[in-house]
Structures are given as C-alpha cells and as structure tokens.
Design goal:
Shape: elongated
Order of helices and strands: EEEHEEHEEEEEH
Radius of gyration: 18 Å
Low-confidence stretches: none
Mean pLDDT: 93
Strand content: 15-25%
Length: 171
C-alpha cells in the first residue's frame, strides 16, 4: 500500500527525494513584536528538514501587519527581515529537501487588536487596526472581531505585497 512513499518522485521539473511532506504549522516561534525569525524557529525547521521529509514548509508569514494571525507569526512585510529569512533558508537546506515558504494573510481571522495594533498604513492611508476582508463581515466564531471591507486600492496593494513577500522567501 505504501510502497511508493519513500521513492523519489517528480513535481514538474523538481525531483523530490520521497513523497513525505511536512506541512506548514503554527508554532509561534518568531519574535512576538517584530515577526523576525528567531533561533528557535530556525532550529525547529532545521530539525524538520533533517528528519527525512522530501518537502518542508515554513509556517505562514504575513505580507502586511493587518494579516498577522498569530502572536509569533513570521513577518514577510519588509526587506529588514531578509537576514533572518536567509539564515532560515540556509538551515533548511539539507540533503535535497525541497523548501517551501508560505505567505499567509489571515484576513478576517487576523487579530491585530490583540497585538496592540491600533492603526496601520494600507494603500498609502491610515486605517484602523482591525481585520480586513473583501467585504465587511462578522465571523461566526465569536473569538474574532468583525472585519473592515478593503478598498480596491488595498486589494491591489495586497497583490503586490504578496509578490514582495514571495520574493523575500525566495531570496
């Protein structure tokens, strides 16, 4: 039944050493205030990379502060984080492991108010520090605050911010 699990495989032009993937998890190991990669995050993902997986995925990193969903989420919103991201990528570079970085804006399930974010800059304007989404709505989960509808400019900005976050992970 599992005879192919440990065999090499192909995904497009990539060769995977086996068919086991370590999926992204929320571990909250990045700096609580800045989102910077910490030595704990590096060590955690290095261990996963050394653990025999063919693919290892990082925890989700936020491309904009209003998309920060967890207290210890990884920040991908600034080039200031490149040194830590590069140390993380190097630590995960083990024996043919394919490394995947996850960009994750948690939208209406973000809780910036819990992290003391009272306001932010989005599409060049000051906006309230509350969750955002494509439309204003309340969550069926009582733990989450209602979210504010994003403007067209904010949505367009998010496309660019996601691209910049992906670039940072790739560098």
């Amino acid at each position: 039944m599992f005879e192919s699990l440990l065999k090499e495989g192909k995904i497009g032009n990539l060769t995977v050493k086996n068919r086991i993937k370590y999926a992204a998890t929320v571990n909250n190991f990045c700096d609580y205030k800045t989102g910077a990669v910490t030595e704990r995050e590096i060590g955690y993902l290095r261990e996963r990379s050394e653990g025999g997986f063919g693919i290892v995925t990082t925890s989700g990193g936020y491309p904009h502060i209003l998309g920060k969903g967890y207290i210890g989420s990884m920040a991908l919103d600034s080039d200031d984080h490149l040194p830590g991201l590069k140390r993380l990528a190097q630590a995960m570079k083990v024996d043919g492991v394919i490394r995947i970085g996850q960009v994750m804006h948690t939208g209406r399930y973000a809780h910036p108010h819990e992290y003391g974010i009272k306001e932010a800059i989005a599409a060049g304007k000051k906006v309230p520090g509350m969750p955002v989404g494509p439309t204003a709505m309340s969550s069926p989960l009582k733990r989450y605050a209602p979210c504010r509808e994003m403007s067209i400019e904010e949505i367009e900005e998010q496309v660019e911010l996601h691209a910049q976050a992906a670039r940072r992970l790739k560098e």
